[in-house]
Amino acid sequence: MKILVTGAAGFIGYHTARKLLERGDEVVGLDNLNDYYDVRIKQARLELLGKLPGFRFVKLDLADREGMAKLFAAEKFERVIHLGAQAGVRYSIQNPLAYVDSNLVGTTNVLEGCRHNGVEHLVYASTSSVYGANTNMPFSVHQNVDHPLSFYAATKKANELMAHTYAHHYSLPVTGLRFFTVYGPWGRPDMALFLFTRNILEGKPIDVFNYGRHRRDFTYVGDIAEGVVRACDRVATGNADWDSDRPDPGSSRAPYRLYNIGNNQPVELLHYIEVLEQCLGRKAQMNMLPLQAGDVPDTWADIEDLTRDVGYTPATPVEQGIRAFVDWYLEYYKDGGPSDPKVTNLG
Fold this sequence. Notes:
Elements: E1 2-6, H1 11-22, E2 26-31, H2 39-50, E3 55-59, H3 65-75, E4 79-82, H4 89-94, H5 96-116, E5 121-127, H6 151-170, E6 174-179, E7 182-183, H7 192-201, E8 206-208, E9 215-216, E10 219-220, H8 221-233, E11 256-261, E12 267-268, H9 269-280, E13 286-288, H10 304-310, H11 318-332
Parallel strand pairs: 1-2, 1-4, 2-3, 4-5, 5-6, 6-11, 7-10, 8-13
Antiparallel strand pairs: 9-12
Helix pairs in contact: 1-2, 1-8, 3-5, 5-6, 7-9, 9-11
């Protein structure tokens, strides 16, 4: 198939595009290569994708309405995987307007492109952050999520609502995937695993928020990419049993589906750090701190629906996934250290 992957220079976008290319799809990768984090790692990801047959890169901002319309009209994509976004919980507190441009305006431009150009299926990225103040575990797409704790989460919840209206009015099949703390090789430098690794190797203390009592549904990026591709292959359909008297937030009469995509095995942050210490052969100096603004103590994904519908089966324990990340990190930065990220984000 001919598939557009937005955010192709990003962490999940790179791994997803690679999986599509390796099975023989034609992939057009879109990214604006912004400087939210070190652009060099984005360029390195693109360089690797460019070595695979079937890949083309387009540098374009999602918020560029005219440019996006021209791209969709010219390419006539069969499927779209929309992973491009302004990420980060803490940064959304500092700079909410960046999230308006990328996550709201940008996603509208993607929806319009799909609507007007016969796209068969749109798969888009949401986030576990939409669960916000919810504490009923494990998190289920059949729960209401009306109390986000960050503007980032609010824009992602808005994306889900926007997608539903396009499914309803224009019969555009859409599938939303709520990602749960993704980690692994080629990860984002603003994420905790990246920052912890750098500081431990440099003998510097690491900031451990909520005194290390966080529990996160850490999910290996290879498992995530497999799930995204499987979801793309299964075109969303309406739920004939949907009841407007008892509306299910995870489906609709329209061709609209929502899924959690996680590991279904929460891990305490202190254990996560302990595994990292073992992989690095060094102990961490920990600066214990209270919970950060906009953060939630725990996440835990109910993935039953995605497993049932597409056969999603995450299979990578943190011990294996962190080892893969550390091996990549040591190889990638063997000739020098990474730039200093300004944001710590557990996801």
